[in-house]
Each structure stands twice: as structure tokens, then as C-alpha cells.
Amino acid sequence: MSGALRSALTLAVLALLVVVAALWGWAAFTKPFPRDEPVAICEDADVATGEEVRRDQVVVSVFNGSGRSGLASATSAQLEERGFVAGTVGDSPQPAATTQIWAADAANPAVDLVRRQFKNAQVVAGDALGPGVVVVVGEKFQSLRSKQVESVVARADATYCRATGSE
Question: I need a surface site. Which of 36, 109, 153, 166 has the fewest CB within 10 A?
């Protein structure tokens, strides 16, 4: 093989390697970034009769049913200070005069634990506006009860949305 032919062959192989590297680099450059899968804030968990449900296991979503600005976020922060896990905070789709806890089962231990944090809170049927126990604070809401209830014992078998990572 002559020197000219060997040089031409070497240049052709090198050119082919550059083209392959360029195509591989372009494919890697234009590939979309991997997306982080959102982690659920809570998952349904069963609790048997006689088992304890603690504040750090309960997610509470708070919605403002009053005309006062920031009431839901302030209430959510107070519940968080007590050890509850904060869920969604926002405005209620309908106004409320009193504090309401929207739940299908008033005897659910998570609902009972949240209800005991409020003065005169009523458990009513309502939509799941957010994860966990849904609280709608109304016009008459002033503050949480001064007595903090840390846990309740389930009076019947139930299912509630337990905070992810809680024991």
C-alpha cells in the first residue's frame, strides 16, 4: 500500500469517527432532561380499632372560606407548629361562616384529631380539595384551641391519608 493511499484511508477513518462522535453528541445534547417523579405527600393507611394516630402522621389542607386575606396560610402554619404535616393551602370554592372539616367519615381518627384542634369545628360532607384532612376556615374563626391534642385512639377500623415517611 502506498503512502498516499494509507494517508487517505487514515483521513477517511478519522472523518468517519468525527461524524459518529458528532451524531452521538448531538443526540445526547438534544435528549430531554430526566424528570423527577413527584413524591406523594401522603398515602392511604389502615388503622385498626385501638391504634393511636399522632399529629405527625396527619396531613392537613387548609382553605380560606372567609374574606380575610392570608387566613388559610396562617392557620396552616399554626397547625404545622403543632406537628401536623402541611398539605395544600388556598381559597375555598365557597364561603363559610364557621370552621368546617370536609370529610366523608366524622369518626375517622385523623378527622377527629384535626377537629379537636379547633373551637366549634363542624364535620361536613365536602370535596377533597387537597390531600389529607380538608379544613375550611370561615369568617368566625379566631384561633386554634389553646389545649393541644397530640393523638387520638381509633374507635373503629378506618383508613386515612398517612403522611409519607411517618412511622
Answer: 36
Distance CA 58, CA 135 (A): 12
The owner of cell 484511508 is: 9
C-alpha 129 chain-centroid distance: 12
Between CA 123 and CA 103 the distance in angstroms is 6
Q: How many residues does the chain have?
A: 167
Query: In Å, how far are 2, 21, 42, 85, 154 from 48, measured between CA atoms?
Result: 87, 61, 18, 22, 7
- Closest-CA residue to 101 (of 109, 91, 90, 112): 112
Considering the entire predicted model, what is its pTM?
Answer: 0.75
Tens of pLDDT, residue by residue over 23-65, are 999 988 888 888 888 888 999 999 999 999 999 999 999 999 9
Confidence at residue 53, expressed as pLDDT on a 0 to 100 scale: 95
